[in-house]
Each structure stands twice: as C-alpha cells, then as structure tokens.
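> call design_seq(struct)
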C-alpha cells in the first residue's frame, strides 16, 4: 500500500517485480550493483542509483 515505484537490478529476473508493479500501479525503475559504461566506478554506481531514485 502506498508503493509508488519499484526498482530492480537488470541482471535478475524481474517477473515478481513486474507482478507487484502491475497489481499496485507502481512505476518501474532500474538500479545497478555492477559497473556499467555510464557508471564504471563504485561512486558512479551510487550517483547513478541516486539519480534514478530521484527521477521517480
């Protein structure tokens, strides 16, 4: 109740998260625990995740 956004990590199956989002009307977001081209450092991952959360 009151869930606005659910986040998942792309390396994991999002089936359960998709069900929760569909049943609650929540938006979906992505967070990262592994480096990416856009966020190759740990600090970059943290900042990217903070940005993703803030944009929701």
């Amino acid at each position: 109740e009151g869930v606005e956004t659910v986040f998942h990590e792309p390396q994991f199956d999002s089936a359960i998260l998709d069900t929760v989002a569909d049943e609650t009307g929540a938006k979906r977001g992505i967070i990262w625990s592994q480096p990416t081209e856009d966020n190759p450092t740990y600090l970059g991952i943290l900042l990217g995740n903070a940005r993703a959360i803030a944009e929701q």
